Fold:
Amino acid sequence: MKQSVKMIVGNWKMNGLAADLAQAEAVRVSLAEAPTGNRVGLCFPATLIAQAAGRLKGSPVEVGGQDCHAAASGAYTGSVSAEMLKEAGASLVIAGHSERRAGFGETDADVAAKVKAALRAGLEPIVCVGETLEQRDAGRALEVVTLQVAGSLPESLSGRAFAVAYEPVWAIGTGRTPTVEQVAEMHAAIRQAQVERLGAARAPILYGGSVNPKNAAELLGVDGVDGVLVGGASLKADDFLAIVRAG
Structure:
């Protein structure tokens, strides 16, 4: 099933200083001049969220964080709570990005705890799942990802707004993407796993992994792809806008 309104979210990762918010403002201006029916968000480094929220206030561009701690406060030096993100002006937050799972050892249980924190603070979580190249080559991609869905989506998500982002780990930042058939197969499996976990919730399922202006239209046209999570291509307004308008 396809959704007419696509969800297009950019993830700046650990990139961006105050001057780079000019790119976000260019997105805001373009969408004000030529609105799109798609839902648009940008997830900034924590240092930029308050400034970005101020500059994008009143625009259709939603502001998000890239991670949050499961606790609301405490002795967690260097961490940022969901409540802090909310106060700074965020409405979205990414949870369980593959770079967090791989680089920081986050488990499905850790991700589920962060999702609960996001809900507690009034943020809409974007929950990431995806397999490595070794897992795909071993024929375990569907198994791995559906288990991640089951373990990363807490029951408290039932009836709440959230999204799932499928990120084949081997496609992130490599320029490689799965075939259209592989994407459709995985999104269908995620949808089924989501229904089994939470019931008939119709949360959007995004594709993430080397999304760019050249492949965005094809990916957004795949059955079951409700939007995209964009990495490097979201850092430049022209590239990101091309993706936003491709849906």
Observations:
- The chain has one domain: 7-244.
